[in-house]
Amino acid sequence: MENSCNQSMLEILPDEILLKVCKYLLCTDILYSFNELNYRMTRMITQYRHDVSFHKTSISKFDYICVNVLPQFSSQIRSLVIDCCHSVLQDELFIKYFSEKMSMMFPNLERISLNSYMQDKLVTFLNTLHDLNHLVEIRLYSLFPIEGLHQKTFTRSLIQANNHRLTTILIDNYSSSLSFDDTDCYLNILQLRIKLKTIADLPSLFVAVPHVQYLDVIIDERDETFVDLSEMKLSPLIHLTNFRLKSVIRVWILEEFIALLVQLPIVQCLSLFLSTYDKRFIKGDIILPSLPSTVQQFNYAIYFISDTTLDEDDTNVFSWSPSHPVACFFDNKCLFIHTLPWYFTHLEFSSLVGKMMSCRTNSANSYDKYVEQVYLKIDKHFTLSNSLAALSQCHRVKKLTINVTHNEDVSKGMCI
Fold first, then answer.
1. Judging by DSSP bridges, how do beta strands 168-171 and 191-196 pair with one another?
2. How sure is the predictor about 61, in pLDDT bands with cuts at 50, 70 and 90?
3. How many whole angstroms separate alpha carbon 251 and alpha carbon 24?
4. Where are the domains of the chain?
5. Mean pLDDT, range 187-197, rounded to an integer
6. d(CA 263, CA 203)
7. pLDDT tens, position by position, 268-311
8. 8 Å CB contact between 41 and 16
9. Residue whose C-alpha is closest to residue 400's, from 366, 380, 379, 371
10. Average pLDDT value for residue range 69-90
11. How far apart (Å, rounded) are the C-alpha atoms in residues 172 and 183?
12. Exposed, middle or buried, 376 (CB in 10 Å: 0-12/13-18/19+)?
């Protein structure tokens, strides 16, 4: 009688309330508990049947769902997330159950997201993807480091998966850097987010994806010896309309910036996050006229390190137009300037920049609209208490990384 009463109490709740409850549950908990419970519940969780995520799913529950639940609606699945971070055996079990019949089980699959894969396991998984007519997108998160000698081979396996049907490959900034052979050319790729080791990898990338329309690049390291991009031969990306580049480890010069823009003849959305010693980068009357005439949206952030001490007067002469307002933070010889509003999802608080920002809480300079990931470096210049003031400007953070380099400051911060 008590079980019957509890069941009826659950079922009298409106769908809106039940769906709010579902937001606090894992996707697999919802499928395990509500799928085929009754017609109304099954209809209510339709989206969870279309977008199946095994994030944080235990091995026992994963095994049960693969055997007893997925076969009931596998043809309805549009996207799939496999998480080897919290359940390292997910990949092996999934291949065990579905590798020989992937295209039959998931005929309408459009996107696969893979978390925390090692190279060998990922290549094995990619080799199971055949004749999935609708599968055009793969997303990789926290891809384990791949040795330089194997990066080109791995990249080739990734881009050629599913009989060259992939058009979109998105790899997060916590993943391994990859590289391309100079002869690689993949006409199928239209959207790509990737991390490269150095700027020297840009020419082979531009050759490899001539039809790309969206390109998001992170340069992972500083060149061992200075390489001048303006002296490299870059192939123009004549289809590219959205370009994003983050290179805060390497130091840029203006001539490289201009040489890069020349190869983006129809770019409409341009987002750049760079580091420099070149003062011309922080002057709007130099940067803005350099942009292609096709640019409709310009997002820009610069770390500038000066050889002289900066003061308030230095920050008032940058000549940015009202249509491109900027926020400026400076401390001693370091300056951080960016267009408003802040656009990039990943924000790094170095000790100097973090200290600057902790003193600026003007709502006009708020970072709450886009920032999802924050990296804090705690040292003798930037205590944990300082960081909280800067972090308070980022209201939608999903991932916070704290690097501690000074124990005394952390202990003081922890007492606050």
1. parallel
2. very high
3. 44
4. 345-416
5. 97
6. 11
7. 999 999 999 999 999 999 999 999 999 999 999 998 988 777 66
8. no
9. 371
10. 94
11. 25
12. buried
- Tell me how far the alpha carbon of residue 26 is from its chain's centroid: 22
The structure tokens listed for 16 are 């809106």
Quick check: 263 and 229 in contact, CB under 8 A? Answer: no
What residues contact residue 405 under an 8 Å CB cut-off, 6+ apart?
A: 377, 378, 379
Residue-by-residue DSSP string for 32-64: HHHTTT-HHHHHHTHHHHHEEE-TT--HHHHHH
**Inter-residue contact 199 to 250 (CB < 8 Å):** yes
pLDDT, average across residues 49-58? 95
Please name the residue ranges forming H helices in 134-267: 148-159, 161-164, 202-208, 254-262
Other C-beta atoms closer than 10 Å to the C-beta of 173 total: 16
Q: Is the model's pLDDT at 54 over the cut of 90?
A: yes
pLDDT at 223 over 80: no
Mean model confidence pLDDT for the chain: 86
